[in-house]
Amino acid sequence: MPPPLTPPSEPVRVRVPAKINLALMVGRVGEDGYHPLATLFQAVSLHDDVVAAPAPAGEFSVTMSGEAEGVGDGPDNLAVRAARLLAEDHGVADQVGAALSVRKSIPVAGGMAGGSADAAGALLACSVLWDLDVEPDGLGALGARLGADVPFALLGGTALGTGRGDVLAPVLTSGCFHWVLALSDEGLSTPAVFRRFDELGLGREPEELDVADELMNALRTGDAPALARAVHNDLAPAALDLRPDLEATLRRGEELGALTGIVSGSGPTVAFLCVDESAAIDLSTQLARLPRVRAVRRARGPAQGARLIS
Ligand SMILES: C[C@](O)(CO)[C@H](O)COP(=O)(O)OP(=O)(O)OC[C@H]1O[C@@H](n2ccc(N)nc2=O)[C@H](O)[C@@H]1O
Ligand SMILES: Nc1ncnc2c1ncn2[C@@H]1O[C@H](COP(=O)(O)OP(=O)(O)OP(=O)(O)O)[C@@H](O)[C@H]1O
């Protein structure tokens, strides 16, 4: 029986980044329904904020605000599931509670790991609120049980992900990359994109699950044009098959001066890499006028992983 916890005091605030996959190499689906991956994640400066405030023991709730359309506030919400899982894993589910608030800027079902960000934020915020003793990789291991992208939302920066995308190794980068994100007027379901990927028969052999040296070198030297030549997303054909209109967004962004455009993860957000900040400002103004583009955001990468804010 763990000792009784000190009663929680002030709300704890955490900021968590969205991600882009600079490379996403996908194998054939396994018996567990997941696809083996090799991916290069980069966290970018588009964030959700998660606040955990004290609540009576056994009560776990969430209030959503910001760009949270379509996300429920019941027990299936990923932030609530994360808080409950953390409490159960530490054997304190009947001693602690949390009133969570999530302010969303990361698009819902946008391929930028928004739900995973909220789960990561809730794990970190509640671990501090409840003053838990957490092993160095304890939150990441718990997070992987909630979603393949959760460990990276905790780590941030730039990292190679293997396994389901949850086994991480940080990658050296220099400088800062300037991204313009075209947010879509409608989300895409991640499982649906993986299913279409299977139907198209696109899975790689295990030995082909590798990230190109050119990409690693471009990151190490901070060379945006070289990075633009090396980015790759195996899920793009499946996402474009489900959303053919994204092709026009990609083409137009490149015509308007982006170094390259990629579908972000499972889509439908399209991420454009620009040579510098001024090119990113120009592009973002022009892209806002495209059909089916709900909003345009500028972001820099790499950004920090989940962190406490005052
Ligand atoms: C597309 C990516 O964002 C790329 O980073 C991720 O692979 C998806 O990560 P995620 O949304 O956190 O994924 P999860 O919530 O764990 O899984 C959602 C669904 O995506 C599919 N999925 C996910 C990860 C993976 N390696 N193989 C899969 O096939 C499965 O159908 C799964 O049921
Ligand atoms: N706190 C949350 N924020 C966003 N979505 C949530 C949350 N909790 C549950 N969900 C559900 O999770 C699903 C996926 O949403 P999410 O925004 O994570 O997609 P995504 O960014 O495309 O995911 P990924 O990039 O990790 O594949 C949605 O159907 C959404 O309703």
Automatic annotation (TrEMBL):
Its EC number is 2.7.1.148. Pathway: Isoprenoid biosynthesis; isopentenyl diphosphate biosynthesis via DXP pathway; isopentenyl diphosphate from 1-deoxy-D-xylulose 5-phosphate: step 3/6. One of its GO terms (biological process) is terpenoid biosynthetic process. It comes from the Bacteria. Keywords: ATP-binding, Isoprene biosynthesis, Kinase, Nucleotide-binding, Transferase. Catalyzes the phosphorylation of the position 2 hydroxy group of 4-diphosphocytidyl-2C-methyl-D-erythritol. This is 4-diphosphocytidyl-2-C-methyl-D-erythritol kinase. The lineage of its organism: Bacteria, Bacillati, Actinomycetota, Actinomycetes, Propionibacteriales. The gene is ispE.
